[in-house]
Amino acid sequence: MLDFLKVIVIGIIQGITEWLPISSTGHMILANEFIKLNVSQSFLDMFLVVIQFGSILAVITLYFHKLNPLSPKKTKPEKIATFNMWFKVIVAILPLLLVAVFDDWFEETFYSAVPVSIALIVYGILFIILENRKKTPKINSIDELDYKSALLIGLIQMLAVIPGTSRSGSTILGGILVGVSRTVAAEFSFFLAIPVMFGASLLKILKFGFALSAYELGILLLGMAVAYVVSVLAIKFLMNYIKKHDFKAFGYYRIVLGILVILYFAFC
Description:
By secondary structure, the chain is mainly α. The protein has one domain (2-267). Helix content is 75%, strand content 0%. It has helices at residues 2-17, 24-34, 41-50, 52-62, 64-67, 76-100, 103-110, 113-132, 147-157, 167-177, 182-208, 214-241, 248-267. Helix 10 packs antiparallel against helix 11 (182-208).
């Protein structure tokens, strides 16, 4: 029973931090200090990635019509625009695929308190600096996003392989840098997550294998279900929040979290 309560907490952390630009890795490092699941390390490594599948389903649920190029409710131009949107997503994830082969090396090298804290703080400062520019966005819809801008966002997303940077934080920062509005940057970040997170989850489950015990399967399904529900709420919150506010609050939060992580591991 205790493990199931721990899984619920992990699912909540995953669902919130995956979509807000505050780094799920930084939070998971802290959570791992206090939440110890009674499972093997190989299962835990797989679980912490595959649980993201629940978060992917949340995006698909909320944006199904917008993501579906074959929707009978769409006109022909709208269907073409949706296909174009998916082509832009493909262009944007290509750079990440180039560095994905080094993902294990980056995780082994940088997955510790100090590098993650530095990434949290640096990205927090960048969010504050960019938002203080007060520049009017040039791109206010995904239809207006050209392939060059999508590629630039994808190149910046490559930094997400460094733990603590945040995948959503990288793509949102990239979007703001190329003149995309906050709303479009966030939505494009959600859409990029679908193939990226699905691919990562598939690779992890294939590497681990499908010989799950009933207990492990129960933990995995519970984690995904919680991540799904919390992700729906987190995405709705973020999209409503950025209609009236900028990303500076998330920048300050990242800086504070980075300092707390350093202090915790320095004195505990």
